[in-house]
Design a protein that fits this description.
8 strands, alpha/beta
Length: about 170
């Protein structure tokens, strides 16, 4: 049985830079030999994965509860229901992820890096759990947690890699 992957959430308010940071971290982690899985929380929107008129879209419109598509290079499964974060983490673990980076899901209990873009965003630290570090655009008043400048990608990658080996 393979070791459980490390799970780290990146949480912050809308437009705090979560997606941008993830897109900078992922290639560096992958180049370092870490197989990265990513889970995105779309809080309250009804995202559209496949395109209107395409076959998979037509199958869902016809009422299929599950639609899968595969090619020579990728596979996607679309389920017509929400899925809990713990189930998604387990699925990516089964698929071989060494590290699962989760964007969002503020109220879940996995270790977190909190992104603080503006000084008033610091109130987020009052209600999220298991904060392991802060990524910010400026100075933060919280002194007992590791803090990273949003542009110090190498330091953030090093912190994440150290978390994987714990």
């Amino acid at each position: 049985m393979a070791a459980k992957p490390c799970v780290i959430q990146l949480v912050g308010y809308s437009n705090s830079g979560k997606t941008t940071l993830l897109t900078k971290l992922i290639p560096l982690l992958e180049q370092a030999g870490v197989r990265v899985g990513v889970i995105k929380h779309d809080g309250g929107h009804d995202f559209e994965w496949d395109q209107p008129g395409k076959d998979t879209w037509r199958y869902r419109e016809a009422g299929a509860s599950l639609v899968a598509i595969t090619s020579q290079t990728k596979t996607a499964i679309i389920e017509q229901r929400p899925t809990s974060l713990s189930v998604l983490v387990e699925r990516l673990a089964q698929a071989g992820a060494d590290l699962i980076l989760v964007e969002g899901f503020k109220r879940e209990s996995y270790p977190k890096l909190v992104l603080l873009r503006k000084p008033e965003d610091q109130e987020l630290l009052d209600f999220v759990t298991d904060v392991r570090g802060i990524v910010s655009w400026g100075e933060v008043v919280q002194k007992d947690l590791p803090q990273f400048d949003v542009n110090d990608i190498d330091a953030i990658v090093s912190f994440i890699r150290a978390s994987i080996s714990k």
